[in-house]
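Cross-check.
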Amino acid sequence: MTNHQKRLSVPKTWPVERKTDVFTVKASAGPHGEDGVPLVVLLRDVLGYVDSTKEARYALSEDSILVNGEPINDEQRPIGIFDIIAFPGREEYYRVFPDEGGRLALTEIDADAAESRLGKIEGKQQVSGGDTQLSLHDGTNVLVEDGDEYSTKDSIVVDNEDKSIVAHFPYEEGALVTAVRGNHGGKIGEIEDIDVTLSSGSNTVTVSTEDGEFETVEEYVVVIDENFTGDDE
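Predicted model, tokenized:
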């Protein structure tokens, strides 16, 4: 199987130029599905910390780069929305956050903020033993004793070390959200209205921003709080 991906066919969220070269690195299997961008692309094309895949492999072999608190040794490991990338030796920490247009970008954060990550609940089910499993947008799961207080489309903040939930943001009118897909990707505002579709189609949400409002399908928005906008820097 090839380790390369044609630039013209990469997801629109990838922060790569499509017409400079024919190929870029292909993401390995892992979280975020096909939307995940290979770690080496962020290290090379966004941060400029390495010039090649070989240099990225060497940096990773030193356990000098953490993703969501874990050392990574695969330069093709897919990175996606709300992941935390840490360089402890440099004392630099970043959160993956959509910019205007929905492309993945890196927002610099402090060390305390890098200790946890945001996750959108996309599914929940009861498992053996009575606990509830919450399935998050990146493919990871979190177990909770009482699942009644959590609903799909809510967001939670998960501690990177012990995987405990440290904050919970319900999906409801008045909630602060960011659009992560579509024509309004990267925009931030408060949910003004949730229009429930009675057919099999998607519900739509109206989001009020400082510059007006926009409408999108609810699958494209994620509940956040002010600490995840990048305005706290």
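The CA atoms of residues 177 and 223 lie 4 Å apart. The chain has three domains: 4-111, 116-169, 176-226. Passed to J.P. for a second look.
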